[in-house]
Task: structure prediction
Amino acid sequence: MEADVDAPVSVSPDQCTWRRVPWLEAALFASSAAFALLAARFGLAPHQAWGRMTFWPYAIAAVLVVVLAIAAPRASRTRARIVLTLALLGAVTIAPLGDQVAKRAADHLGHHAQSEVLVVEQASSALFRGENPYDAVFDDGLLARRKTATQTHYPYLPGMLILGAVPDGLGALSDARVAFTAATLAVFALALAVARRRMPLLRALQVLAVLPTGALVLATGGDDLPVLALMLLALVLVDRRHPVAAGVAIGLAAAMKQLAWPLIPFLVVAARDRDDEPARGRMLAATGLVLVPVVLPFVIWDPGAFIEDAVRFPLGLSSEASAAASPTLGRLLTSLVPGGGAVLGVALPLALLVSMAFILWRRPPRTPAAAALIAGLLIAGVVAFAPAVRFGILVYAVNLLVWAWVLRPEDAGEREAVPRLQL
Result:
């Protein structure tokens, strides 16, 4: 009997070799290698050093993703992805960080650290001397070669000071970036232990600390990453229906940096307890019990100095210009319109508050994924229109949007709770 040559052939996904390749992961690593090459060629000195050390690890990782997907047995692919990610974490984050802090410890001049590292360290030292960090002048020579604003302003919130409070006698370990990195990885490990779905968090780790969105930041600056790790922990805790613990986590993040604040109202609205009852009051109370005792004493200590450093300066309303000079739409408007910086500095937070209130009124998020999505989009808008901003702040938007995907609901009923964007 002749075979029916027209009969359809059933091919399982495992038989289609190229379909097994995680092309997104390979593309991310390849793009990171290209970014490292550009950083090595055109970046600032610390960025160049990072780029030279990380190009080959990223390039090799991109190739290995394809090879492992084709050659590794199905049962071991997940383990291979985890091992590759952890190896890359050591090669592109930990190793460049060790190189930078060792070189800085050797020359004692701060050439191998961005200004935020020095500012956090000097502000912490000022506090331990009994001085108000929001009224101190950092004039010991480390910041003298930088812009005046970095010598006279501490633009973060008081919770960040604890990560700069490392004794000087520890040599390279006294570098605040060591504390930033250790705190980031420890908090992420806690989020991983709490999460109900752990494998999707592998992508969150890659964006937070392995791709240039985290690796470059930790090696050269790093103060944003512990805040982001705490925000992720809060999202995971809301996902696991632990509203009080989530309030503590987001309260700690908000006590360190202002960019954690846009997530708070959306996360509070989405919070529910183990009985599937709204837990907004409990989460908000826990957030306030952490945030207020950390921030309020510094407001009372010197309200003018606090508002100048932590409010006016980040908004571009201070008498001294911020060192941030990223080419945003807001910066373009500032250069074209006389007094545009002051107008944007007032209009932008008002627009953010109005947008948040409108969303909370019309379509409040019901899941942590929805809360992350909305907060990420709002922060991206702030980055676009801010008159003075570092592109590093865009890392907040990137991470939040990735978390919205990682924490997306699994069943259809929950998926309906994630708002669709209507432009």
